[in-house]
Every structure is written in C-alpha cells, then in structure tokens.
Amino acid sequence: MNPIRIAKSWLNYRRTLNELGSLSNQTLSDIGVSRYDIRNIASRSFR
Q1: End-to-end CA distance of the chain
Q2: For residues 7 and 37, what is the distance between their CA atoms, to the nearest angstrom?
Q3: Residue 17 banded pLDDT, cuts 50, 70, 90
C-alpha cells in the first residue's frame, strides 16, 4: 500500500469512529449498533 492510501484510510477510520461515537445510545440502538461495535465498524474503513 502506498503512504497516501494509508493516510486516507486512517482518516476514514478516525472520521467513522468520531461520527459514530458522537451519536446517542438511542440513535445507535435505532440503527442496530452498540458502542462495543463502533471500533469494528470503523476498522472496516481502514482496510
């Protein structure tokens, strides 16, 4: 992987982590995600 692609993937990971982390527990529940799942979901964007 080239460094630019790694950097873009990392930014996507952080953005996803921050956006999901800022949601309320109720909103997360409505979309079927628990706080425990957030890192796993965000890590998919880093691959």
Answers
A1: 10
A2: 23
A3: very high
